[in-house]
Amino acid sequence: MIENLLTPGKPISEPSPELASAIAAVASMPLGTQDAIREILESANDLTQAGADATLADVLQRVFVRSVGEFFTTQRQSTQMPESLIHYILPVNDGIALPEPSETIEVPLGDVLGARRSVRNFSIVPMTLQELSDLLHHSAGRRAVEAGYGIKNVPLFRYPSIGGLNSVDLGIVVNRVEGIESGFYRYDPVGHTLVMHDRGDLRLAVQDVTFEAEWLFHAQVVLVFIHNQDKVNWKYKTRSLRFSHVDLGALMQNLYLVSTSMNFACCAVAGFFDEGANNLFKLDGTRQFVSLLMGVGPMGRLTLAEPE
Ligand SMILES: Cc1cc2nc3c(=O)[nH]c(=O)nc-3n(C[C@H](O)[C@H](O)[C@H](O)COP(=O)(O)O)c2cc1C
After folding, report:
1. Pfam family example for this protein (predicted)?
2. Does the pLDDT at position 304 exceed 80?
3. What is the model's pLDDT at position 67?
């Protein structure tokens, strides 16, 4: 099968030793992996036929473009949420309750949009638990429930997400928040609680898995954007990866705007080592992985110049 894909319509009679060993390696892989490789080869082939000498980024882009075909099949797609995902629409049982969040944000939206910027300078003052509750609720909390996917009460959140499936989970490294132990937590937006996953001061561990982000050490909290592909793959298949990153952007901007309205410093961080960050937060790196970090907290008085 694989050799036919390498030169469609023209089977290779005598593959080179390298090609023969590559074909043998692919043939010994699980069927799902073989399908993935076939998608990649077909995409590379499309580009070659069009006369391109494609880079990896070109080939991957082509894979995603072709994946729209997955929707226009003759088979009816299920609109029923898989059983294994139902727990995501229910509150977590053993979460630590956050204080009742403030009802509204009083700062005009235009002022917030005008003032928003990345600030990498944090005060020595800790964040209060009330502030953490407000930050999480207004950026990422539940706003309503609606019937969908064969279920009566599917929660809807404060940022748009593909299929309303909320593909980004929010982790929180608590460094300096009054009234809650330092450690790593996950936010449950349905029950508005925090679930502890790791205990202790993680500032040096976070420093170890980031680069050019020394300032992050001083952030009162470090938010960890975790892509949870299981929530969206069942419905969106290959395209889930592409569009769940759009969800992440929407959530990131909410956090920037709510932080600005609270007069908090806030800055996104792409400068982290994938493997190290995934290990630190005990994520498998494939179905769940760190997509972005963000330092947030009360602002220091001296605002540092932006790095070049
Ligand atoms: C996805 C993303 C990743 C970023 N990663 C970093 C980073 O690793 N380190 C950093 O200092 N700033 C980072 N930033 C902040 C940008 O440098 C900043 O948004 C940009 O310079 C524009 O400035 P502004 O946010 O003040 O408008 C990131 C921003 C985004 C949106």
Report:
1. Nitroreductase
2. no
3. 86
